[in-house]
Amino acid sequence: MWLTGMIFTVAQVVGGVLTQWAGWRWVFFVTVPIRVAGLVGAVRGLPRHDAPGRRPRLDLVGAVLVTTALTGVSYGVMQARGQAVLGGGLALLAVFVVHQARWAREPLLSLGIFRLRAVSSGNAVMLLLGLGFFASPILLSLYLQDVHGWSPLRAGLGYLPVGVAMFAGAQAAGRLTLRFGARRVTAGCCLVGAAGALGVAAFLGVDRSYVLTVVVSVGVFGFGTAAALTPITVVASSGVPAAQNGLAAGLLNTVRQTSGAIGLAVLGTISAATASGWATTHP
């Protein structure tokens, strides 16, 4: 999980460079060759599936349903008048659940895995963590640029202390988990992250210190969150039959990605509305 902190840090700096010198669209363009290289590497480097017996069939209907549903939910949350899209996404998500439970011969997501308390609780914690944390780098960058007047590059560099804190938290997570157990470390690290979030809420403002707001508060927030990812993964995969290890890992990753997108949409909307209201009352 130490790679997560490194990726967050590098992405902020590279994003700042691209936005300032090439334009914000290049933040998306630059991912195309990276994804192509990853695809080629996966095809050429990953071992083929040569396990004996019949290969499981891909639940194509289920894949289309859940992808469309999650896209609709994320898009609907982001749009000010996206209630119809949001409702459609939620309806498709319900159809997906019914399809997995009753109609699919080989379901994409075996719902029985949620009977395992560790899987359910681990994914629930990841959901809440994603809603609250994974939007923070983007909102922090906007705060440094729009409030402090920093350039995109300087804002990216300003995130470096947070990346270092995340790297340290991810590095410490393994040792802490081995010593104190995954559940205790998850709870403790989430409390540390919550303390950092309270610090952000207390110190965030137009004339507030970068050191207190970002380096200290967001740094503590990032340390606790990054340190929590490893024990959450351990919890969410504990007690899972060997044949469903891949399912458990994929489920947790999907929850992480989806909650991050929805969290960004919700917090971005709240932030924009708050900023608009403040600008109206402070002409």
Overview of the structural elements:
This protein has 2 domains: 1-22 and 113-271, Growth Hormone, Chain: A (Up-down Bundle); 60-107. With 283 residues, it is mainly alpha-helical. It is 79% helix and 0% strand. The protein contains 12 helices and no strands.
Q: What's the CATH class of the largest domain, please?
A: Mainly Alpha
- What is the number of E strands? 0
Overall morphology = globular
Q: In the CATH hierarchy, what is the architecture of the largest domain at level 2?
A: Up-down Bundle
- What name is given to the CATH topology of the largest domain? Growth Hormone, Chain: A
Secondary-structure-based class equals: mainly alpha
Could you report the average pLDDT, rounded to the nearest whole number? Answer: 88
For the record, the count of structural domains works out to 2
Name the CATH superfamily classification of the largest domain: MFS general substrate transporter like domains
Q: Helical residue percent?
A: over 70%
The tally of helices reads 12
Computed Rg: 21 Å
Strand fraction: under 5%
Distance between the termini: 45 Å
Largest β sheet strand count, sense and barrel closure? none
Q: H/E element string? A: HHHHHHHHHHHH
Uncertain stretches of 5 or more adjacent residues? none
Subcellular location: Cell membrane
Main location: membrane
Transmembrane segments: 26-46, 58-78, 84-103, 124-144, 156-173, 185-204, 210-229
InterPro entries: MFS (IPR011701), MFS_dom (IPR020846), MFS_trans_sf (IPR036259)
